[in-house]
Structures are given as C-alpha cells and as structure tokens.
C-alpha cells in the first residue's frame, strides 16, 4: 500500500511525492511499534538453568538473531562448556542434555539389611536403608548424593543392623526354663519351661499355660516375649480366675482347691453374660466357662425440643458417659449444662431445660413487683409495732412511779400505826 501511494504521488508531481513519502514513513514507524520484538528478529533473555550458568553474565534483555551465549555446567555435573544460539524464529537452541550429572559410588547392602535405590545414583538422588526382619537399624535410614569438593559423595554412611535383643525370660516359682544360652536372648529365640520334680522324679506340680515362649517385637526396635510364662501349680489346685470388668465376690486366695467355688459380680455399667459362679476342677480348669462383663447401653436421651442442643449427640450412651447441653440464641439454660449417665437409664444431674429470655424477664419482673408490693406492708407493720411498744413502755413507767413514791414526799404507811397495831 505504501509503495503504490509513492508511485502514484511520483507520477502526479514532486510536491505530492514528498507528502506521500512522509505519510508512508509515519505509517511504517507505527507498524514497527505495534509489531512484537520477536517479529523484529530478536530473542528475549533466556531463562536460568538449574544445571548450568553463563560464563559471561549480562543484563541484556534482548539479543539479535545469530547471537550465541556461552554456559558452563554447575558443580555436581560433568564439567564442560556449551552455547545456545538465537534462531531465526526468535527462539534459543535447546540446552537439555548438555550437562550430565555426576554419579556417587554404588552403595552396598548393609549386613543383615538392604539398600533401596530410586531411579539412579546421580547428584541429588536419595537412597534408603532397611534392616531384615528381627534386626533393628542403628544409624540414619537414608543418604543423599551431594557435592564434596570437585566430586560428589553420599552425605551419610550406611547404618548398622543389629539383632533385636530381649530381656531375660521371667522366672517362675517351682520351675525353670531350658535355653542353649542363658545370657543372650534375641529375636526369634525360644525358651521352654518345666516344673520341678520331687524325690525319684515324682511329679509335684502341673505346668499350666503355654510351655514355650519366644522373643519377638512390636515396633521393630524393642524385643518382647510372646506371652506370659506358664505356672507350676500344685496338683489339684487352681489359680485365681480373672474376668475383665468384674470383681470376685467370694474369698480371694492365691490358690484354690478342687471344687472351690468363685462368684463374680460385674463392675457398675457392665452386664454379665454367662454363669455367676465357677468351680475349680483338675489341671487348673474352671467349669463352667468363665462369664464375661460387657458394656451395655444404659441411657437414652428423651425427645428434645428444637431449642435445646446436645454436643456430639447420639442415640445411646453408656454408663459414665456425659452429655453437654446448650440453648439456642434467645434462650437461657435452666439446670446443669452437663449430665452423666447412671444405671437404670437415669441422668445425674437431671437434664436441663431451655427458657425464653423474655419469659425469664417476665418472671424476674413479677418477683421484683411482688417485693415492691410487700415491702411497704412490712415497713408499715414494723412502724405500728414500734409505736405500740413505745406506748407500752410509757405506761409501765407511770405504774412504776405510783408504786414507788419518793421517801421525801410520802410517809410510809406503817409509820401511821400504833406500836400495838404494828405488832
């Protein structure tokens, strides 16, 4: 368009040609301003690389086509230099793969353990260590490939895996245990108990319980025995029976004889299932089967109105559990905010209720008005009683004056009598 205008102006005359030239220059300048930098044949400054840095840093924000920038690989990568170039499409050539990560030495499995390698062992990678079953780790569980001078290395050494130890097995009365080593007890080791014998190998006790226990672990660090040791009980005796959440009502003994009976009672809040009493039988057996005390639902909430709210409300509550009551805005709680479930579906203290604040104000107003009405009556009665008391006191004084005249003004009656009359 600009070229056609110039040619037309040139054919028309020199003056028109110069005007068209100026107009064309202004239009060209406007087009250049509106065109993005990429269209001018430039590249914007390249983004920073995590694996390389420029050898000659610059603050330039634009680079012309054909410009090359030199980089060198950062520590942790194979040392080398490379360049990227601004291309005709205003983009830089790729730098991917120009820097290769250095690799740490291949880690070996710890004794009685294992090393777990991720994708590789290059700079920045992490490895993890675990110990075999029955062993515990002493040391750090992982390591990272880091820079060390001009090379890379693992930041932590491999841990040690040692056998999980157990305390010596518990001793028992009237018996002992067999073990090939009575000083060192570790994971997987088994000990077997036996009862003492009498003269000439006579059996004196019954072994009650599991004869063997073994060393194990719940957390992979501390060793524990698999269960309680057995007991050596005098023949035809029974150890005290135990029922969870129950108490023995009968006499408490360390050992029970044959046909002794033990009676149980469940703790408050629990209900018994099974027989209440059991009897000692041979070989430390109790018959019938021991009862159980289970927690049963004891309390239910009544139908509540919409203005009373219960925190974490449930349909059923067990013995000893409590509820917290609240009222909605505009109401006040009358009673305790908390109640506890007791036996026989009873709440203690009784469940509170919600009263309207206006209703409460009405009650307070009635009480205050009643006090104002009664108070004048009480004051009037008090004044009347006080006046009556004052009048009574004055009359008492007058009588006293007549009965006790002063000696200066009156003659005693006996002074007027003759001596014969006095006698």
UniProtKB/TrEMBL annotation:
Single GO biological process annotation from the record: complement activation, classical pathway
The organism's taxonomic lineage, starting at the top: Eukaryota, Metazoa, Chordata, Craniata, Vertebrata
Species for this entry: Jaculus jaculus (Lesser Egyptian jerboa)
Family: Belongs to the receptors of complement activation (RCA) family.
Designated name of the protein: Complement component receptor 1-like protein
PANTHER family: COMPLEMENT COMPONENT-RELATED SUSHI DOMAIN-CONTAINING, COMPLEMENT RECEPTOR TYPE 1
Residue intervals of the Sushi domain: 41-101, 102-163, 164-234, 236-295, 297-356
Quaternary state and interactors: Interacts with C3b.
Subcellular location: Membrane
SUPFAM superfamilies assigned to the protein according to its UniProt record, in alphabetical order: Complement control module/SCR domain
Segments traversing the membrane: 362-385
Covalent S-S links between cysteines: 43-86, 266-293, 327-354
UniProt keyword list: Complement pathway, Disulfide bond, Glycoprotein, Immunity, Innate immunity, Membrane, Pregnancy, Repeat, Signal, Sushi, Transmembrane, Transmembrane helix
CDD domains per the UniProt record, alphabetical: CCP
GO terms for cellular component: basolateral plasma membrane; external side of plasma membrane
InterPro entries linked: Compl-Cell_Adhes-Reg, Sushi/SCR/CCP_sf, Sushi_SCR_CCP_dom
